Amino acid sequence: MTPIRLFAALVCLPVLVSAASADAGRAGRAAPEAKPAPKPVSLDDLFARLRASEDPAEAKGIAKLIERRLDVSGSPTADLITDRARQAIAAHDFPLAAELMDRVTALEPNWSEGWNRRATVFWLLTDKDDAIADLRRALVLEPRNFEAWAAMGRIYESLDDKTRALAAFRRAQTLYPTMEKIGEAVDRLAPEVDGRDL
């Protein structure tokens, strides 16, 4: 071995020994276990938390999470058309919004929020009968849809059907006890429907 090669070997030897011992150390230690990803909160859990929450701010946050979950149809096409219907509503083009939501409910007939959205359009078109029919369909698919119950209560109240309005508001209140204005609606209608305490 030439002096230059011998010198190079001696210089590299500590590095090779250090790397070998590090590998041996790693082989002797168990690799750290990867932490499992946190389990996503189910819709059932969110509804249970909403029902149990006594803090209006916390409940509002939970309600928004629920609404976000319900807002997704599972079909990119239906979601895109729904977004266009939302734009049409913002532009006060309610007939176009109704036509778009007709397509959505045809594409995704088992999506509760599609029927709820179309009911909103019918309400804006002052077609209360069709709005109620769509809300009923929405609630068959997702009976915990507190927004649909609240909307049904408002429509029945506008029709002066106070008994049905109160029943719908109470359903919404059971699902979302701190929901804004629902308590007021129940307090306003209950004496007329249930009778006043003497």
List keywords for this structure.
198 residues; mainly alpha; Serine Threonine Protein Phosphatase 5, Tetratricopeptide repeat; 10 helices; disordered N terminus
Explain how this protein is built.
It contains 10 helices and no strands. The longest helix is centred in the N-terminal third of the chain and has 26 residues, at 3-28. The protein has a domain at 74-143: Serine Threonine Protein Phosphatase 5, Tetratricopeptide repeat. The chain has helices at 3-28, 43-52, 56-71, 76-90, 94-107, 112-124, 128-141, 146-158, 162-175, 182-194. With 198 residues, it is mainly alpha-helical. Helices cover 75% and strands 0% of the residues. α9 (162-175) crosses α10. The protein is flat.
Measured by DSSP, the beta-strand proportion falls in under 5%
| CATH architectural label of the domain at 74-143 | Alpha Horseshoe
Q: What would the average pLDDT be, to the nearest integer?
A: 87
Low-confidence spans: pLDDT under 50, at least 5 residues? 2-25
